[in-house]
Structure formats: C-alpha cells, structure tokens
Design brief:
- The chain contains twelve helices and 20 strands.
- By secondary structure, the chain is α+β, with helices and mostly antiparallel strands.
- The protein has a domain of 276 residues.
- The strands form seven sheets. It has a five-stranded mixed sheet with strand order 1-8-7-4-3.
- The longest helix is centred in the C-terminal third of the chain and has 34 residues.
- The radius of gyration is 23 Å and the shape is globular.
- The two termini are 31 Å apart.
Length: 499
C-alpha cells in the first residue's frame, strides 16, 4: 500500500468496521430532515449562573464540550459546580436524532474520522458549551469540607457561559511548573480557580485512594495522520489536568446517582464487578513481593499498586496494563431505587452512574432526562424495564465501538510498522485465552497477537517478541515470542520503556 493511500484506506476501514459491528456510520435522511426543525428550548425558571468564572478543560482538538466547572469558596467550605450540556433540551426522546443516537449509543473516535453520536450542528455547536456562548446546562452543585468530605449537594437547571476553553496539556504544564498560565479572558481569576480546583481534586483523589480506588498509569497510542500518511505514533500518558477532571467527574456522577435514588427514580448505573481473574492478579503481586488476599480486595490491590509505582515508576505502565486487562471492562446495569447498590471496583465507589458526557454517550443522555424529570417533580420518563433494555444496548454498542476504535488504531500502527518486519521488542502479555494470546510492545506501545511461541504465556508475563507480519486492512499485527524475560524486568530493569 502506498503512503499516499493511507488516509483513504483508514477511512474505508473505519466505515466498514462500523457497519460490521452493528453501528451506523451515516446519517439517515430522517435525521437530516429533522435538523431543519430543531426545538427551541425555554430558559424559563432556570437559574442564571452566567456571571460565574466557568471554564472547560478538554483535549485541545475537542469540539464537543460536555462540561464546564467552577469553584466557589464560602464559609470554610468549597463548592464545586459542574455544568453539563443540556442535550436533552434539543434531542426529544423518540425523535429521529434520538433513534440514531440510540442505535450507536456513543461517539466513535478514530485517527482519521470521528463518528459523532449526535449531528455536529448539535454536538459541536448548539449543545456544546463553547466559549463565550450562553448555554442551558444541568448543574451538579457539591460542597466539601477541608478534608474533602461532602456536606451538601443539589442538581438543577441553569444558564452558564464558558469563559475559558483550556486544554489538558496547557493546564497540566502550568500546574506542574512547566508552562505559563493559559491565556484567557478570566485573567488572574483563572489562576485562583485552577489553584482551588487542583487542591480540591487532590483531596478528593486522596480520599478515593484511601477507600481503595485503583491508580494506574495509562499509555495510549494516537496515530498521527498528516495529509494522506501515517507520520507518527504519538503516546498519551498521565496528566495532572486529566486527573483533576476525572476526580470532578467521579464526584458529579456519584452525586447524580444519589440524587436520583433520593427521588425514588430507577437509573442506569456503571459498574465494574469484582475481577474474575483475581487469582492471576495475586500471582503478579507475588512476583513483585506482595501477598494479596485470596478474595478480591480493592484497598489491598490499591496499596500494592502504590508501592509498585514508587519502587519502579518506569515499569508501572506495563504493570498497570496487566491489572487493567485482568479487572475486565465496565458495563451498564439498570438499578431500581430500592435495589442493592452495585459498585465500581476500580473507583471504589457505589451509587455511580454516567452523566457527564451527554453529547458523546447515550446513557448520559438517558440519565439527564431522568434528572430533569426528578428536579421538576415529574414522573420518571423511563420504567425499570426500559432502563434494563437500554443498559444492555449501551453495553453492547460500547463494546462494538471499542472494537472499531482499536481496529483502526491497529490498522494505522500496522501501516507505520510495515517497514520493521523482523525487528525485536520487549513486550508484556496483555491477553491469554482460547481465542489467542496478545502482547503490547514497550515502544511504541502497540498491541498485537502472539502467533508463535505463545504456549504457557499469561497476562503480565514479560517477553521479547519479533514482528513477523502486518496486515493493515484487517488491523493485524503479529509477533513471535523469542524470549521469556525474568520477572525482574517488570521492575524496570529493561532498556526500552513506553514512558
């Protein structure tokens, strides 16, 4: 395949993969027609919070801004307000736009094209919390004491105005002393806001870790396509600003779930069950000199991860990946107001829903409709049976979207690696089962199938592999295991690193 064909080839791969996995990459005529008669939501009866110094922190290239945040310090406590785009105001249930969103249930992000859940005139314009625009929002209003303990909370509708659009990269650089304060109309107010937000996020994160929340180092590959060619495989690692937003979103999602329960509403919850392969996690911890309990124990695992990170920070990404794979993926479940509360093993929280990305995820849009009804003392718009069906659909389509995104990333990586057949790499085993064995090489951190020498390998094993074959059209990257490295290598005593 010539370099000049790579972008077009990746776009075809992405489109075909969407169809193959039961997702719709194209807008039906009914959706296009409906865009000409969008509803005009009323702001009657909503709070006016446009004067607050709201800001957003997201990827530099994000155009669908779902949330803004602001802190207010008063009477010895810190209030955190999260404004969430009021997507439900412009996407009525049962409309053609809503039906198409329900078909996919999520936006799909690939290196060459984004397949948005909602038409771009909505997700990047009319409902996006764009800077200097008045927007309707659902505000999750939370107050915390000096130790990060929640004191009061409320959820209500309001008008907001984003005053500063910030990027993770710029905010993290400033917080860590590596860059200047991002330019914005807020001026010195932004400095005060970011200091307070960073301090609160650190306190909230510490409390969650004390409760057993798991802390990982995630490294993701982002193929960069310039013009028509895959030029580079960029890596996206830990980021202090991402941690800040993650802590705020966890708090907002938990508050939203409790708000619905307090109003007697059923809801869709996000759960990560206790890991089925806990015994393998115990084996990996033992290889690092730590004895974990025989039964799943989030606080014990969290303590092990903290110790391992301190002992060998350069190797922590590999260890993180192994544990993440063994924990398994999350899922959506319906939960009645009187049902036992499911938990999120990795976050060490219960009463947890998804609510903070209504432009990008359908469960968040469903939750928003529930919240608006509860806040207005109206009947629930969904029955428990409705939510059960929706939760299954959202889990199924989220898995499909993940497969599409992974396939296109691997197709791009295969193009980039096509000249390196025969090269050898340090790697970590990321999957092992009846369907095959997979490994991620250290640099660039790309995952492929171990086609030769896979016998006896399990998740977390450190190996050396040789690249034997790539097939970009099918997203295949194939390795041969040529050496099994000692466990000590996992502690950082190897030359190549993904960090």
């Amino acid at each position: 395949m010539s370099h000049g064909d790579q972008r077009a080839a990746l776009e075809r791969i992405a489109h075909d993969a969407m169809v193959a996995h039961g997702l719709d990459p194209d807008w039906p005529d009914e959706v296009r027609a409906e865009l000409g008669r969008l509803p005009h939501p009323s702001d009657r009866g909503v709070k006016d919070l446009r004067d607050l110094p709201w800001s957003s922190i997201d990827n530099a290239d994000s155009r669908d801004l779902d949330q803004v945040e602001v802190t207010v310090t008063e009477r010895g406590r810190t209030r955190l307000l999260i404004g969430l785009a009021d997507v439900a105001a412009m996407v009525p249930r049962g409309s053609a736009i809503d039906s198409h969103a329900l078909k996919n249930t999520t936006s799909v992000y690939t290196p060459v094209r984004v397949f948005p859940m909602l038409p771009e005139i909505l997700s990047t314009d009319l409902t996006s919390l764009n800077v200097a625009e008045d927007r309707l929002a659902i505000v999750v209003d939370m107050a915390f004491d000096d130790l990060g303990g929640p004191t009061t909370s409320d959820v209500y509708r309001a008008q907001v105005r984003n005053r500063a659009r910030l990027s993770y990269t710029d905010v993290a650089a400033w917080l860590e002393g590596r860059g200047a304060l991002p330019q914005s109309p807020l001026g010195p107010t932004l400095e005060d806001q970011l200091h307070v937000q960073d301090r609160l996020a650190t306190i909230l994160r510490t409390r969650r870790h004390e409760d057993g929340a798991l802390e990982f180092s995630r490294i993701e590959v982002k193929p960069r396509v310039d013009g028509t060619t895959v030029r580079e495989l960029e890596t996206d690692g830990p980021n202090r600003a991402r941690d800040l937003i993650e802590s705020f979103m966890v708090a907002a999602n938990g508050t939203t779930a409790r708000f619905l329960s307090s109003r007697g509403f059923a809801s869709i919850r996000r759960v990560v069950r206790s890991p089925a392969r806990w015994s393998r996690i115990v084996e990996i911890a033992a290889a690092h000199g730590t004895a974990l309990p025989a039964e799943p124990d989030a606080p014990a695992l969290a303590a092990f991860l903290r110790t391992a990170r301190t002992a060998a920070p350069d190797a922590f990404a590999d260890l993180s990946l192994s544990i993440i794979k063994l924990l398994g993926s999350g899922e959506y479940v319906a939960n009645g107001p009187a049902d036992p509360v499911g938990g999120h093993f990795a976050l060490a929280v219960s009463n947890y829903t998804h609510s903070t990305a209504p432009n990008r995820r359908y469960p968040d849009l469903v939750t928003q409709r529930l919240v608006k009804a509860a806040a207005a003392s109206e009947p629930p718009p969904y029955s428990l049976g409705d939510l059960t069906s929706l939760a299954a659909q959202c889990t199924r389509q989220e898995d499909a979207a993940t497969k599409v995104e992974r396939l296109v990333r691997k197709a791009a990586a295969a193009m980039w690696l096509s000249d390196r057949i025969g090269d050898t790499f340090d790697a970590i085993v990321t999957g092992a089962g009846p369907k095959g064995t997979w490994a991620r090489i250290s640099y660039p951190p790309i995952e492929g199938r171990v086609e030769q020498g896979a016998s006896g390998l399990d998740v977390g094993d450190a190996i050396r592999v040789k690249l034997v074959h790539v097939d970009p059209a099918r997203g295949f990257i194939d390795f041969a295991a040529v050496e099994r490295r000692p466990t000590a290598a996992v502690h950082g005593r190897h030359d190549e690193s993904a960090l």
